[in-house]
């Protein structure tokens, strides 16, 4: 499967030939000249309606990206501390796979690394503070998984860690300031769990009023986690807003319950 590196400069060059001219605003920001009707002499208008000099529009010098070793979808891609990217699991024409590979941005190539202990797709992969990657849940070859495992970049191997209380896929896993990982819901689930990398186990972390999957989870600057949207078992799309000091309402009543320490900045 082919992969690609995207560059703003390169995209701007391609787009500038098709866009109408735009006007010059004499207040540049970060070397980009804003425009709305026409750019000044020596500038061209990019796709985001800003004027750039030819030097700024030059194509990227990054090396072209080679193809993955195994074409796949529904996988994870995790940036490691080394700068490489771990590609793990997913589905192919033959089904769910356990294969993993590493992308090296300095050479633009993918190389095989160790395989996961369990084939999975629609799982999560979270970089922990110590450099390991936590893999949780997902859809196995036959059913959703409750197992979890750790990838060690130093050895290129995956090893099992504690299992979650329930099977789950299309869930979220968010690294907290404490170094723990908050795992929330998933297709058909309502609960949240907390993974402690120091002891390798999951513990209960409350639940949501609405069971959901395919939601997002965003760590905020104050240490709280915003759980947004998702889809219920009956296909309803949820609208979620953060409101109040310790609640995560969906509509007006979706709350991640105690322990409250999960919803507050780490001390």
Would you give an account of this structure?
The longest helix is centred in the first third of the chain and has 9 residues, at 8-16. The protein is mainly beta. It has one helix at 8-16, and strands at 33-34, 44-45, 50-52, 76-79, 85-88, 91-92, 95-96, 100-104, 109-113, 124-127, 133-136, 148-152, 157-161, 172-175, 181-184, 191-196, 201-207, 216-219, 225-228. It folds into three domains: 8-52, no CATH class; 65-165, no CATH class; 170-267. It contains one helix and 19 strands. The strands form six sheets. The protein has a four-stranded antiparallel sheet with strand order 4-5-8-9, with no helix packed on it. Strands 10-11-12-13 form a four-stranded antiparallel sheet, with no helix packed on it. Strands 14-15-16-17 form a four-stranded antiparallel sheet, with no helix packed on it.
What labels would you give this structure?
267 residues; mainly beta; 3 domains; 4-stranded antiparallel sheet; 28% strand; globular; disordered C terminus
Quick one: how many beta strands?
19
- Mean of residue pLDDT values: 77
Oligomer: single chain
Radius of gyration: 22 Å
What is the terminal separation in angstroms? 45 Å
Helix content: under 10%
Number of domains: 3
What's the helix-strand series? Answer: HEEEEEEEEEEEEEEEEEEE
> What about the largest sheet?
4 strands, antiparallel
Uncertain spans: 4-32, 241-267
What portion of the residues fall into strands of 2 or more residues? 25-35%
Widest beta sheet: strand line-up: 4-5-8-9
| Approximate shape | globular
Q: Structural class, from helix and strand content?
A: mainly beta
């Amino acid at each position: 499967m082919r992969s690609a590196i995207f560059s703003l400069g390169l995209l701007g060059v391609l787009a500038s030939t098709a866009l109408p001219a735009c006007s010059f605003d004499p207040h540049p920001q970060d070397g980009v000249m804003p425009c709305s009707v026409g750019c000044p002499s020596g500038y061209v208008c990019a796709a985001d309606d800003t004027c750039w000099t030819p030097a700024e529009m030059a194509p990227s010098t990054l090396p072209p990206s080679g193809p993955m070793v195994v074409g796949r979808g529904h996988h994870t891609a995790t940036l490691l501390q080394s700068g490489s990217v771990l590609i793990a699991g997913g589905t192919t024409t033959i089904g769910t796979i356990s294969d993993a590979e590493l992308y090296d941005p300095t050479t633009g190539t993918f190389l095989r690394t160790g395989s996961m202990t369990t084939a999975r797709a629609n799982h999560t992969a979270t970089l922990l503070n110590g450099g390991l990657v936590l893999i949780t849940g997902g859809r196995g070859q036959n059913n959703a998984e409750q197992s979890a495992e750790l990838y060690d970049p130093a050895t290129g191997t995956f090893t099992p860690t504690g299992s979650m209380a329930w099977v789950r896929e299309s869930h979220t896993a968010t690294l907290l300031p404490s170094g723990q990982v908050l795992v929330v819901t998933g297709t058909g689930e309502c609960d949240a769990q907390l993974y402690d990398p120091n002891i390798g186990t999951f513990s209960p972390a409350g639940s949501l009023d609405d069971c959901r999957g395919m939601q997002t989870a965003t760590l905020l600057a104050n240490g709280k986690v915003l759980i947004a949207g998702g889809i219920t078992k009956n296909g309803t799309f949820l609208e979620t807003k953060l409101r109040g000091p310790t609640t995560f309402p969906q509509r007006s009543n979706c709350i991640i319950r105690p322990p409250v320490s999960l919803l507050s900045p780490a001390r």
